[in-house]
Amino acid sequence: MKALVLAGGSGTRLRPITHTSAKQLVPVANKPVLFYGLEAIADAGIREVGIVVGDTQAEIEAAVGDGSRFGLSVTYLRQTAPLGLAHAVKIARDFLGDDDFVMYLGDNFIVGGISSLVARFGSDRPAAQIMLTKVPDPTQFGVAELDPAGRVKNLEEKPANPKSDLALVGVYLFTAAVHEAVAELKPSARGELEITDAIQWLIDDGRRVESTIISGYWKDTGNVADMLEVNRLVLESLIPSVRGHVDAASELIGRVVVGEGAVVTGSRIVGPVVIGPGARVSDSYVGPFTSVAADCVIADSEIEYSILLARSSITGVRRVEASLIGHDVEVTPAPNTPRAHRLVLGDHSKVQISA
Prior knowledge:
Elements: E1 2-7, E2 27-28, E3 31-32, H1 33-43, E4 48-53, H2 57-64, E5 73-78, H3 85-91, H4 93-96, E6 101-105, E7 108-110, H5 115-124, E8 128-134, E9 142-146, E10 152-157, E11 166-174, H6 177-183, H7 195-204, E12 209-213, E13 218-220, H8 224-235, E14 241-242, E15 245-246, E16 251-253, E17 256-258, E18 263-265, E19 268-270, E20 273-275, E21 280-282, E22 285-286, E23 290-292, E24 297-299, E25 302-304, E26 307-308, E27 313-315, E28 320-321, E29 324-325, E30 330-331
Parallel strand pairs: 1-4, 1-6, 4-5, 8-12, 14-17, 15-18, 16-19, 17-20, 18-21, 19-22, 20-23, 21-24, 22-25, 23-26, 24-27, 25-28, 26-29, 27-30
Antiparallel strand pairs: 2-3, 6-11, 7-13, 8-11, 9-10
């Protein structure tokens, strides 16, 4: 079995972060979300992986390399435009050959990995196997309708009037039969080749399509709220360790990781919190569910339930929470209480200002 990992999306819901960074590389507990998927694929015993990339190809390649750090052999497949999940399968046809494969969306996060799913598929070998989970707003996802026996009978992509609340999770398993389906597809109203249409083609053609309703944790990390929630979940399982320096005037409470070369002085850290290598925290409070990346600076400030990316600084600010702060950002207090707000914001930003 091979794996096809999709890492070509533009990440519009995470702008402005994704104007300068691939959404699949935004870190969760100081590790890119894409890496969790690659580790899950390796744990399932898969070794050959094709990664579909787009405009952020150079950044993805720099981070993942040849895949050997994960025990994988990686081939990069360029998608010139985001034309749908089935289009990604189409351009990967030569790489996939006639092998079974798992397709994994690179910005999805699944607790517990995919080993059991892959093993079940290997023994049963339906034409396709999908994962489903109940969601509060099915209009944002591919939606499955099941018959009374629990078999998949209908699929729709982001329907205006969903027939169920069962959304497709971003992991799919296929035999080579899916290539027949993809070859027959026409672009949808969105101008994309939809993987839901390919699976529906298999159903209509009498091929066996199996589904599993997962009760575990799954998130599409496509927006800030979901990124922060996944960060919270991963930090819950943190194993405390201190490799940097923490002075006697500081207090570490609960599960806290202080990376190599990090320095904490005169501060209170309430876990779960991870402080990355080379970071400096002084005279500050860092609250639960916060990830501070490498070489960041937090001075005379308070922050919690947030993700701070590499080399950013927060100085003299009370208080930061529920925030995703990009690379090389400087957050400081205004010199005086302003009568007007002076803003420099990236496209599609969202700002909340107190009256």
